[in-house]
Amino acid sequence: MRNRVLLSPPPYCLLMDDYYGGMLVRIARKAVENYVRTGSSVAPKGCPAAFSEKRGVFVTICKYPGKELRGCIGHPEATHPLIEALVNSAMYAARDPRFPPLNAAELGRVRIEVSVLTEPKLIDSGNPDRYPEEIEIGKDGLIIEKGKMRGLLLPQVAAELNWDQETFLGHLCIKANLTPDQWHAKGVRIYKFQAEIFAEEYPNGPVKRVDVSGGGK
């Protein structure tokens, strides 16, 4: 393994280089496969020290050659070491309650995608009408909180679906089981974050960094 040094970055800086990104996707793939076949998975040993740093991360499973979502679970905040959060997210993405459990016959027909998140930051504009001005499509992901209701959408979602900022906010509300206009409501908190995204080009294939800044993959 090449010797690498990865310093802890300030918010909104890149977290992973392409080499590490490829490792994360391959580890997530292995965790998904082990979990589907055996019902358990163990974090690999001998990982780079950077993988022990606490990071938010999501694992997304999509059908191939289409892009239909098959599972997406993650840790929004940096509460766990990256490798632990990654393996945990990969296992639960294979059992995303919105879909039937992933089965072994599907493993060769799904792509694995990993999103490493920056720390969410509160959008504190003082005026909900100005929230759209604070959001950059293709760069920002969003989290909404209202009481016990919470929802999250990754940056690639709005870019891939060609949403504008207000549409993004409306679907964020729906994700939290709120009405689409609740981002205007009193007591609502909106956070934004960024993500570095790495994905297989095809099942078990090479891994590439995904740039959604232009609207889609």
Sum this structure up briefly.
The chain has 217 residues and is an alpha+beta fold. 23% of the residues lie in helices and 24% in strands.
What do you see in this structure?
- The protein is built from four helices and nine strands.
- It is α+β, with helices and mostly antiparallel strands.
- The protein has two domains: 117 residues, Hypothetical protein ph0010, domain 1 (Glycoprotein, Type 4 Pilin), CATH 3.30.700; 73 residues, Hypothetical protein ph0010, domain 2 (Dna Ligase, domain 1, 2-Layer Sandwich).
- The chain has a five-stranded antiparallel sheet with strand order 2-1-3-8-9, covered by helices on one side. Strands 4-7-5-6 form a four-stranded antiparallel sheet.
- The longest helix is centred in the N-terminal third of the chain and has 21 residues.
- It is globular and about 50 Å long.
Topology:
Elements (H helix, E strand, L loop, with lengths): L17 H21 L17 E8 L5 E7 L6 H12 L16 E8 L3 E2 L18 E6 L2 E5 L1 H6 L4 H11 L13 E5 L1 E6 L6 E4 L7
Helix pairs in contact: 1-2
